[in-house]
Amino acid sequence: MKKRWFLNSVLLVCLSCLVCTGQSAIADVEFKNLNSVLDSARLGFDQFFFYRIDSNPYFGSDVTPGDTDSDFGEIVSKLRLSVSKNLPFANIEAQFALIYMSTIGADMYMTSEDENELGADQAWINFENLFASPLSMRIGEQNLQIEKQFLVGIGRYNRLARWLFQNQSFPLAVQINGDYGALKSTLFWAESRDYWQNFNETVLVSGDFASKVGVSGLNLHYDFSENTYIYGGLIAKLDDSDTQVPGVFSSNSQTINFDLGVNYTLGNLLLEGELVHQRGDAGTWYDVEQDRNAYGGFAALTWNFGTTIAPWVKLQYDYFSGDKDFGSGNFDSDMEAFDPMFYGFPGWERWFIGEISGELHLDNSNKHVISLEAGFKPHQTTTVTAVYLNTMLDENYSRLTALADDHWSDEVNVFIDYFPNNHMWLHLGAGYAKPGDAAKELLGDKDNLFVQSLIGFFF
After folding, report:
1. Exposure string over 287-297, b if 16+ CB within 10 A, otherwise e
2. Judging by beta carbons within 10 Å of its beta carbon (0-12, 13-18, 19+), is residue 327 exposed, middle or buried?
3. What is the DSSP string of 34-62?
4. Element (H, E) at 453
5. pLDDT digits over 41-57, tens only?
């Protein structure tokens, strides 16, 4: 494994250097003759190397047969070509991007070992200022990230390089954006690939990830000032996957989300919150048709001290309702479990809440988390962040298993992120997680300890 990791690393470092040193020549020679056809043509390249070591990531349960520990690496390369042209009816931009993903060793997700994959990451065309209007329309394979990505952010499962999770695009999507000054709108439709965010309705009952799961909706955003705004709308999950286990579960669920969020800044104080009420069909469990009536949301308060090293503290509460029927085994027609939808990753602890509990163990349903975060910038290029998280189950079950307790874990994570320039990102992380009584019952009673490192290049 070490030899293969070394060879892959050397190969991709050489490729990074080639792109970096040869970019000017490519732009001057290769694209110069396109000026009569296109207004611009740009080539971009991103390169990531990641390595992680875990002791008991599943609190004592095996990661690979006979081994409760793990260490693995990931490599991701992204090469993209973007072109633009201003026409009388619209300003047009198009992008096509390839992505190479590799997992070195057996990852802690138990999904891939020494595997490689090359595929498409982006393939879209965007029409800006359509017919001199405030509307723009983007069509094709693209990222779709609505507001803070609490409901919509990641459109596919990454079977390789899952920690880096760089391939987040929806394979087919249409979004129409309107910019009316303070008011902005996004009307969208998208189809996902290998839907994965809801454990109960995908892997655990069907043995695989679901296809034919889409999303559509309308989001409105209003700016009162630069850092004070509200947003919200109606978002629907369209599940035509026919995922089922005879006699236990069938999907055919349509989740309707009523969403409202706020971002309010008052001096050094930032207040954030989002509330989601979910209704709609929730499939069938044990021959009982389910009607969803679930709630989710978060509230956060951040105080920025504003001194030289820019320290801050943040208190956050995340809530995703659960359904007591999964613990009791007696199913009525009400489904109170929150549908995780297509949540994304805009930053640390959002919305993978905890590098262990939220990354590996629990999806965004049937849990609530209290987190306390503190950080500072010892240098303008460096950020240090420390987070404590207390994770509890809303109802006493996890992964369709009834549990006697609701305390899942206590976790501490420390992250150091260094950006020496616009072309490099260096990251070091470490953490400790202690299982609560619920996790001990389901997984094991051994504490987790991890360390991780990442190098990123951007050209």
Report:
1. eeebebbbebb
2. buried
3. GTTT-SEEEEEEEEEEEEEEEE-TTTTS-
4. strand 448-458
5. 999 999 999 999 999 99
In eight-state DSSP terms, residue 210 is B
| Structure letter (DSSP) for residue 297 | E
- If you count DSSP H runs as helices and E runs as strands, how many of each does the chain have, helices first? 4, 23
> d(Cα 122, Cα 278) in Å, to the nearest integer?
31
Distance of CA 133 to the CA centre of its chain: 32
DSSP state of 339: P
Reported as a single tens digit per residue, the pLDDT across 381-399 is 999 999 999 999 999 999 8
Taking every pair of Cα atoms in the chain, the longest distance, rounded to a whole number of angstroms, is 70
Q: What's the CA gap between 392 and 366, in Å, rounded?
A: 9
DSSP secondary structure string for all residues of 362-411: --SSSEEEEEEEEEEEEETTEEEEEEEEEEE-SSSEETTEE-S--EEEEE
Contact 407, 437 (CB under 8 A): yes
pLDDT tens per residue across span 214-223: 999 999 999 9
User: Which tokens hold the place of 89?
Assistant: 């009816």
Cβ(429)–Cβ(451) under 8 Å? yes
